[in-house]
Amino acid sequence: MRAVNEEQYTKFGKYFPFAVGAGSGIRQASVLKNDNKDLMDYGKQVVVHIDFAYFLKEIIKESFIDDAWIDNEYAEYAMMHYFYRNGTLDRNNITICQFNMEIHGPQDNVNMKETFRQFLSRLLDDGRYGIFRPVKGGHYRLFFLNLENKKCLEKYVL
């Protein structure tokens, strides 16, 4: 699968052969096992993980991000606190103007449901990100826009 991903992503950007998420290390991840998008056959695989803030700041060397697309097969729950006021991104002086996050449905998992509820509630309380056009399909697809940062507002709203 790595060869397929590398071929796809190098057409428009740089390919990084690791997972980006909440923390660095070597651990299991849910990975698409084949290149047939119709089958969507996922399995567990041990992969190198790089912390999201470290990836932005130290590897791609950017602290102002126009748009981040986050789809990390249930690992998004561990990243939710990054976006809170005084969260990991703030502590690393990283600004994200907008981010799209696919949140895999918590089904009957009470802890995941509560984490999801806290995430949305906290973002609303923080007042930084507006939440736009939630879409419920197989998963929740949410679009967030930074309404606090002047540069983001000038770029996307004003």
UniProtKB/TrEMBL annotation:
Domain Methyltransferase FkbM: 11-120
A family per Pfam: Methyltransf_21
Superkingdom as given in the UniProt entry: Eukaryota
Name the record gives this protein: Methyltransferase FkbM domain-containing protein
Protein source organism: Diploscapter pachys
